[in-house]
Amino acid sequence: MSTSALDALPPLRDVIADHGLRATKALGQNFLLDLNLTRKIARAAGPLDGVHVLEVGPGPGGLTRALLLEGASRVTAIEKDARCLEALSQIAAAADGRLNVVEGDALECDHRALMQAAGDAPCRIVANLPYNVATPLLTGWLAAEPWPAWFDRMVLMFQREVAERIVAKPGDAAYGRLAVLAGWRSHARIVFDVPPQAFTPPPKVVSSVVQLVPKPIEHPCRLKALETVTRAAFGQRRKMLRQSLKPIFPDPALVLREAGIDETARAETVSIEGFAALARALGT
Ligand code: SAM
């Protein structure tokens, strides 16, 4: 595949200056201008041959270019900021029809329909997410129905603190609702950290690239019931479960015993298997 037209695109710093793309905090804009770094992220999601990538928030297109250069068969990129569209159309012109830019709010798009409208290639989600909507986007993807999901992998940039809440295990300080959902539906791990100075403008905190690979459900239960149980349990995480689960079970001690969980345990020590058993007891 010829990549010369993509290689000939101007440096991202010039693209930002030429199109007046001053970063906006309200849109969570921290741009990656170093193509070595964006290619490292794209490689963490690879190999991309034959893969249709969903990117949320391409911005000036640093990661978009990397995904195309690393061989993605198609990239569908959803961007809310209309100021970026012209810069993105220059990339599209250099990409032999492989880049489809969608202007819109990723929180309001049907990602699965968007991707499947373009054929049945394997789908993957790769993004440097806007920090202000990163968690709702992730929980939406993890809540996909039917499961296994319409995507085979997600490689996503988060603030380090959010990344730790995604990959946490029982007993970790960061273990909570997000880790239970992520661990119930995927194998999640931090691939590498990215320092603030790699971004323009630099955020206040370190970021991490997280890989999530969907897995078959090992501990079946209804997603809504799991959410209800973890909301009650972690809503009062300092309390023993026999106390914190009172609003949702008439006799929490009995339910806990039947689920094989010590009634004096706190939410932060309960395994995903344990939460799934509680969700089954809720039955809704
Ligand atoms: N991918 C680019 C990069 O790595 O340099 C930009 C990443 S920047 C952290 C987040 C991008 O998401 C911005 O371009 C921003 O305009 C866009 N964005 C913010 N909220 C969005 C939303 N709700 N839907 C789609 N794009 C959004």
Describe the structure.
The protein has 284 residues and is α/β, with parallel strands linked by helices. The protein has 2 domains: 4-214, Rossmann fold (3-Layer(aba) Sandwich); 223-282, rRNA adenine dimethylase, C-terminal domain (Helicase, Ruva Protein, domain 3), CATH 1.10.8. 37% of the residues lie in helices and 18% in strands. The strands form 2 sheets. Strands 4-3-2-5-6-9-7 form a 7-stranded mixed β-sheet, sandwiched between helices. Strands 1-8 form a two-stranded antiparallel sheet. Helix 4 links the parallel strand 2 and strand 3 (74-79). Helix 3 (35-44) packs across helix 4 (62-69) and helix 10 (223-235) packs across helix 13. It is elongated. It binds S-adenosylmethionine.
What series of H and E elements makes up the topology?
Answer: HHEHEHEHEHEHEHHEEEHHHH
Reported by name, the CATH topology of the largest domain is Rossmann fold
The total strand number stands at: 9
State the CATH superfamily name of the largest domain: Vaccinia Virus protein VP39
Mean pLDDT: 96
Rg from alpha-carbon coordinates: 21 Å
Q: Which strand order does the major sheet show?
A: 4-3-2-5-6-9-7
* Dominant shape: elongated
Helix content range: 25-40%
